[in-house]
Specification:
- A hairpin with a 5-residue loop joins strand 3 and strand 4.
- The protein is elongated and about 50 Å long.
- By secondary structure, the chain is mainly beta.
- The protein is built from 1 helix and 4 strands.
- Strands 1-2-4-3 form a 4-stranded antiparallel beta sheet, covered by helices on one side.
- The chain has one domain.
Length: 64
Amino acid sequence: MFPKEFINYSDKLYWVYKKIHSSKVKDGYSNDLKDFWRCDVVLKNPTDGVLLFLRSIDEVEVIK
């Protein structure tokens, strides 16, 4: 899976792993989905109610 959408949140770079409308997820199960999909952060968009499951992108260090 190639990341197509990136988000800068709290001075860190994340890529959007999944987008799901909050009505599709029962209350209290978003953390279970976060652990299942190995995501680092779940954000809820207040305008349209979409849950964003994000994976962090670590800094890259080039070693010669």
